[in-house]
Amino acid sequence: MAEFKKYRCQECEHVYDEEQGDSDSGLAPGTLWDDIPDDWACPICGAPKSFFKLME
User: Fold this and answer.
1) What average pLDDT score do residues 1-21 get?
2) Of 9, 23, 34, 37, which one has the greatest count of Cβ atoms within 10 A?
């Protein structure tokens, strides 16, 4: 089973949790970061996907 990861927006600190997904953006629970389209943006501040960094 895959280990889910979390990614934090460097602009507003919003956290994308792969295990939870983002239902407001149409991302089902379990959606991996690599499976999110490159044009996806932070649902809070609108920052591009590239502004998110893996939380270690």
Assistant:
1) 93
2) 9
Q: Which amino acid, 2?
A: A
Taking alpha carbons only, the member of 28, 37, 55, 56 closest to residue 14 is 55
Taking only the tens place, the pLDDT of each residue in 18-55 is 999 999 889 999 999 999 999 999 999 999 999 999 99
For residue 14, the enclosing domain spans 6-54
How many Cβ atoms from other residues are within 10 Å of residue 23's Cβ?
A: 10
Domains in the chain, number: 1
Residue 1 lies in a domain: no
